[in-house]
Amino acid sequence: MSETNAKVVCMDAAEIERSLTRIAHQILESNKGLKNVALVGIVTRGDLLAKRLVQKLEQIEGVKVPLGKLDISFYRDDFATYFSPEVHSTEIPFDIDGKTIVLIDDILFTGRTIRAALDALMDIGRPACVQLAVLVDRGHRQLPIRPDYVGKNLPSSLDESVRLFLEEVDGETAVEVMRIQAGQRAGSAPLNR
Amino acid sequence: MGFNHKHLIDLREYTADEISLILDTAERFRAVNERRIKKVPTLKGYTVVNMFNEPSTRTRSSFEIAEKRLSCDSLNFSGSGSSVEKGESLHDTVHTLCSYKIDAIVVRDRHAGVPQKIADISGVTVIDAGDGKHLHPTQALLDLYTIRQKYGHIDGLQVGIVGDISHSRVCGSLIPALKIMGAEVTVIAPQTLLPARPEVLGVDHVSSKFDEVLPQLDVVYMLRIQQERLEGAPFPTLREYNMLYGLSKDREHLMKPEAIICHPGPINRGIELDDYMADHPTRSKILDQVYAGVLVRMAALYLLLGGAEDGITA
């Protein structure tokens, strides 16, 4: 039991920053610029990463792309068994029809969050295409979903949780891996931990 | 925060944080209702029975819309024209409905206590949609939502409820809910429309003088004179009631500039409200209340059924 609380920092603030810079360049490269591109981050941390990416894209290209955030609570597939009553707001202050939407999430795991996010997006409009950028891909996909942009591939074990913490909400920026405690879920870190 | 309620019957069992969570969730559903696709798949595969044993237009239709926009299947059942008229007991009716593997029952009944009885015997989630002169929790929630939408908060507001206090199930839920949320509540009515001991209401002030109280109110909540529930002539004529307790144009100068008017509907125009006040472009929130009804009912269904894996019981 001595190792149950051990946590390992897999990415520190500087590494995360460099990964985001690279992802920003890759988004620019594969879309040949930023025409028609908009970023949509999945709450509660993908939205904050998306905000950082918008700033980076603006620094590199001098263009401020539209930014939205998406809450997927109403689209989850585990409503009956796992339920987190707090729903965050979805704010997409632009028309997504015909746009290239880059969905941003922190940790890609089973792929179920992304499935829900795709359904949520399709109920809002009809984007021309949807791409996926994630800071960490930890493997263990349960659905045929593959990211277009990855900060770091981090092979993990199912009894580990991989979580992103961000300065804005957690007081520090890092990706940490730890053993799952009894009753804990592998998903995103709660706010105000 | 958690939300561990199975039923929505008595709001006195809810904390201010839990009521706020329902209102916050309703706010998220407002965003859904303002999209082109006003529907989410959340309750796909769930079945809700709307058991309305008493006439209702807005409560019933807004529950139905809420259910459709959450993608659940609903069955409308009414006492009249059913086996209830053949003498089936409530107990048997409920067990029969539950044999269809339903997840929730929304109950409107003319007898107080029926929703609680169904909750006790059925094992499924029960939402009280108005029982007798007792409770009407979703009405109270939509009122709170409307008031919060206007002022951004509920605590500290002066709310006056005017009219037939003693026959009102709206009061039965709204007064405790307003107190939980920190409002100061005054009821205004002739003695004959108040309970014999008004202190049972749990309000801050009781008055029979509308014109004295009106200038202090942030929210003027007009109740319907329920002509079907009046016994023993509580006031001489409707005209006299209207002159003393009706909110009409000639009382507007007594109101705070920002004060709003709410009414649970349906309105008796010319009795408790005149056309000018009922249709007032800034003060009247009556149609906002109707819209809020869909939002809070979606929120209630969402929160009550979420995580309720064992909610399917016969």
Describe the secondary structure blueprint for this structure:
The complex is a heterodimer of chains A (193) and B (314).
Chain A: E1 7-12, H1 13-30, E2 37-42, H2 46-61, E3 67-70, E4 100-108, H3 112-124, E5 129-137, E6 149-153, E7 160-165, H4 167-170, E8 174-179
Parallel strand pairs in A: 2-3, 2-4, 4-5, 5-6
Antiparallel strand pairs in A: 1-8, 7-8
Chain B: H1 16-33, E1 47-52, H2 58-69, E2 73-77, H3 90-98, E3 104-109, H4 114-122, E4 125-131, H5 137-151, E5 158-162, H6 169-180, E6 184-188, E7 205-207, H7 210-213, E8 219-222, H8 238-245, E9 260-262, H9 275-278, H10 286-305
Please give a structural write-up.
- The complex is a heterodimer of chains A (193) and B (314).
- With 193 residues, chain A is of the alpha/beta class.
- Chain A has a domain at 14-76 and 89-160: Rossmann fold, CATH 3.40.50.2020.
- Chain A is 26% helix and 26% strand.
- Chain A contains 4 helices and 8 strands.
- In chain A, the strands form 2 sheets. Chain A has a 5-stranded parallel β-sheet with strand order 3-2-4-5-6.
- In chain A, helix 2 (46-61) links the parallel strand 2 (37-42) and strand 3 (67-70).
- The radius of gyration of chain A is 16 Å and the shape is globular.
- The mean pLDDT of chain A is 92.
- Chain B has helices at 16-33, 58-69, 90-98, 114-122, 137-151, 169-180, 210-213, 238-245, 275-278, 286-305; strands at residues 47-52, 73-77, 104-109, 125-131, 158-162, 184-188, 205-207, 219-222, 260-262.
- Chain B has 2 domains: 11-132 and 291-311, Rossmann fold; 137-283, Rossmann fold.
- In chain B, the strands form 2 sheets. In chain B, strands 7-6-5-8-9 form a 5-stranded parallel β-sheet, with helices on one face. In chain B, strands 2-1-3-4 form a 4-stranded parallel β-sheet, sandwiched between helices.
- In chain B, helix 1 (16-33) crosses helix 10 (286-305) and helix 5 packs across helix 10.
- The longest helix of chain B is centred in the last third of the chain and has 20 residues, at 286-305.
- The chains are: A alpha/beta (193), B alpha/beta (314).
- Chains A and B meet through helix 3 of A and helix 1 and helix 10 of B.
